[in-house]
Design a protein that fits this description.
The chain is α/β, with parallel strands linked by helices. The protein has one domain: Ribokinase (UDP-N-acetylmuramoyl-L-alanine:D-glutamate ligase, 3-Layer(aba) Sandwich), CATH 3.40.1190. The protein has eight helices and 15 strands. The strands form three sheets. Strands 4-1-9-10-11-12-13-14 form an eight-stranded mixed sheet, with helices on both faces. Strands 8-7-2-3-15 form a five-stranded mixed sheet. Strand 9, helix 4 and strand 10 form a beta-alpha-beta unit.
């Protein structure tokens, strides 16, 4: 079974420690899926700078296929981050060469090989969703906290799995919101809520999972590890409760690691923005 992380990659620059880590939702999910036992690949854009070198070196060390990664002259996407009591706070970003992201016919031929395709609201992927929906693989999309009705109506019809963060949704309206998304087409709708756990809607039923609490060192990548473990389990036919439980445990364990999944290196002047 094979999973593709499609879209965003970034170096997260921790200004308080002068350290940068590889990251980005699509890239992180690919790395975690490989760690969780699937074959995995990443398809996206990186620059010709030191950050791009570090991302590609890290992916190769993690045995993630990078054969369709495009390198363009210029800077890799940078995001500047600080931690407050273990929680990430984004200070700004520069998308660099990722602004030029596009998919070719050769990319779609490659994409059709995968059992699971994961992408995100950060990936400039919207124009390609109709084509991606035609691919044989399960299509997963992380909305993060973007919950505008018009955007969801534009995108959700093409998805198999739709994921959201709770901080964009009113608690009283949570189940109604999830039902409205499911009515557009996704077979699974998931909302993660940090320490309050997660909720999934599948086949008309709601499933709730408590969080595994821990003394978090860094929450970066926790949501992406949740997504990856859920997709790995779901694609292999496990029940929704089992998928949620394993995903919650993976998310908690990832909070004990600096960066999304480690591999920090010292920042240079060019990385400080």
């Amino acid at each position: 079974m094979k999973l593709l992380g499609l879209g965003d990659s970034v170096v997260d620059c921790y200004i308080h420690t002068n350290t940068m880590y590889p990251g980005g939702n699509a890239l992180n999910v690919a790395v975690f899926a490989r760690r969780f036992g699937l074959e995995a690949a990443y398809l996206g854009y990186v620059g010709t700078d030191r950050a791009g070198d570090h991302i590609l070196d890290t992916l190769r060390r993690e045995m993630v296929d990078v054969s369709r990664v495009i390198r363009l002259q210029g800077p890799t996407w940078h995001a500047w981050v600080k931690l407050e009591q273990g929680d990430r706070v984004f200070m700004g970003s520069d998308r660099g060469v990722y602004r030029q992201f596009a998919l070719s016919e050769e990319d779609f031929t490659y994409i059709n090989q995968f059992d699971v395709i994961h992408t995100s609201v950060f990936s400039q992927i919207e124009p390609y969703l109709p084509r991606l929906a035609e691919a044989p693989g399960l299509l997963s999309f992380d909305y993060s906290n973007r919950v505008e009705q018009a955007y969801i109506e534009q995108t959700a019809r093409y998805l198999d799995v739709a994921l959201f963060s709770h901080d964009g949704i009113s608690g009283d309206d949570l189940e109604g919101f999830m039902r409205s998304v499911a009515e557009l087409g996704p077979e699974v709708v998931i909302v993660t809520m940090g320490e309050q756990g997660s909720v999934a809607l599948h086949d008309g039923r709601f499933f709730r999972q408590s969080a595994f609490l821990c003394e978090a060192v860094d929450t970066m990548g926790a949501g992406d590890s949740f997504i990856a473990m859920f997709l790995v389990c779901y694609a292999q036919g496990m029940s929704i409760p089992e998928c949620l439980q394993r995903a919650a445990r993976a998310s908690a364990q990832n909070c004990l690691v600096h960066g999304a999944f480690g591999y920090g290196i010292a920042m240079e002047e060019v990385d400080r923005g």
